[in-house]
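Appendix B, record 7
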Amino acid sequence: MDFSLTKYFTDHLSMLRVMDHVTNNPEPKRTGAFSRTSSFGSSLRKRSISMSSVVSLHIDDEIQSESVSEAGDIGDRALHSQRNSSCRLSLDLGMEGGPPIHPADLHKVSVASPVREDVIFPLPIDSLKGPGDNKQEKQGLPILMEYVSCLIHLAVFGILGVLTRYLLEKLFGPSVSGVTSNQSIIYPNLPSNMVGSFLMGWWGVVFKGDISQLSDILAIGLTTGFLGSVTTFSGWNQKMLDLSVNGNWVQAILGFLVGLFLAAYSIIFGIETAKGFRWILKRLNTSTNKEEPIIYRKWRLNSFRRHLAAMVVLLLVLGVLLSVSGSLLKKEFGSGSSGAQLWLACLVASFGVWIRWFLARFNGHGLGKSGILRWFPFGTFSANVSAAAIMAGLSTLEKSVNNTNFGTVAMGIQLGFLGCLSTVSTFIAEFNAMRESKHPWRAYVYALTTMGVSFIFGILIYNIPVWAKGFT
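Structure tokens (predicted):
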């Protein structure tokens, strides 16, 4: 909520209190015009209070609408909010009737969870800092280096997410355990979507603030980078299209419903187990009289030198990952193996993560200047739908070209770039936040809209050409 709007309603409520004091002052005698004036003042006060209550409820609804849309990710706005939004947070909490919050604890407040002490989201405290805190702020990274560091973190964790997703697909696939199949509603990406959603409950909800105490950029890398890349919405949508193109429409619809159900309960299970683990840690810290875990003091990136060292280390890791992937791709490209597809996926994964991160800045904005439908995460929606549509187009081209090298390129882009551009972990975090809000119906509208639009685009781009041309 904007500061000027907050100030307006603060002044308005102060005026009402003064009016209330005047109209309720005991007078020995009220006659004539004074009595009528007093009656008019009392009526005005009642109407004003009624209007204030309605406006307050409207503001609360607007705040919650914006909050649920931002529950999963807000993109590069997180870097700006670390510098500019603490005043807004403190005022919003005050209007909601929350307890006073010390500036040092502001980073522990999150919009992603309905439980104030359990959900943690990194928010800044700059506007509430004292004069002695300027030195500490100067120890952080400049804004340009902060952006570069964030992009490096996202790239490294995105590649690690692709590798993890690939390993989970192989582990649960037909060649190893045989749990998943391309011809059933238990699609190959389902285990990775469940694992990523479960870990989102840990790292993206309950322990996100703890991770942010070490490094805000690390929290972004783990949630947006790693968990967003472990899970993939475009792969899920494409497998349902593969079922429908062969006439298995019921299985395709059930695949969407089962996938949504299992991912939704995976994040719930993650949140509940993480809360239990947090309770254990809290009891241990209480019994040992420790004010702060030693890991915070030892590994916190609270100086320019530490930030720079972390950025250099991650840059070296990124260089190694890209070099190894490039050399292995060159060696295996002509074979058309799944290994060649994986190494190409690692090379292009970073671009998908970066685009999704920038698109996430539109979450919570709504449409137009008035910001209608602010509760709808348009950033995540656009990333998932566009990735699903492009994947459907590549699948169509792959069938029409029917060339080994083109197939390797297409599958590598699908696995890496499009798999990282789309996400289930962020999608399901937003779904869960909506489901626990005052308007739970929004969660199902959001989920059905995302799945429905992606599936319809897929039918137009993939199914119809396959049927028309008779591709096999």
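Remarks on this record: The chain is about 70% helix and 0% strand. The first helix runs from residue 3 to 23.
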